[in-house]
Amino acid sequence: MSGGKVLKIYCSPELRCVQTAAGIARAASDSHASICVEPALSDWVQLSPEGSSKNWLTTNQLTSMGYPVQEGYKPHLTQLPKNESPEDYLRRLSSFLTKISGSSESVVVVVANAHALEVARNRPWTTAEQLCQIKKAIRNCATCEVGVDSDNKVYAVEPLMLPFTKTLKDAQEKMMVK
């Protein structure tokens, strides 16, 4: 990651994201990175079966399991709506990413789903069909490095981190293709 120590990792409360964030925190062992579990980064509520609720592990449970979760973190969003339009979901993600773009941290890592990646790349959607296409087009563990200029405009940065792939050779080949 371009310049600076990772001190803050925001992640979706889905366990797959917490596990990935914990791996990144461990890899950034020269820093004291902690994970801020953020419900605003969770999956679109309409992707869950009707009537089901999100049953995430609490920060206390995650901490007791050895995850470096920041227990005093106050989430941007504490409760998800029961129903959410594609536009509402876009606003939820945009609101959170806008909030952290003003962070005093020099390096912030966000671990979430493909939709958050599209919002960070400034590629909005308007329909459920577009949301489903994003999930098909972007693989799990895709990465995107962005910067934020003095006007809070987000721009893509050439990543210094190899993409997540099955082998090191695959990752190196992917970097050469870009």
TrEMBL record:
Pfam families, alphabetized: His_Phos_1
Transmembrane domains' residue ranges: none
SUPFAM superfamilies for this protein: Phosphoglycerate mutase-like
Molecular function terms from GO: phosphatase activity
Superkingdom, natural source: Eukaryota
This protein's name: Uncharacterized protein
Provenance organism: Ancylostoma ceylanicum
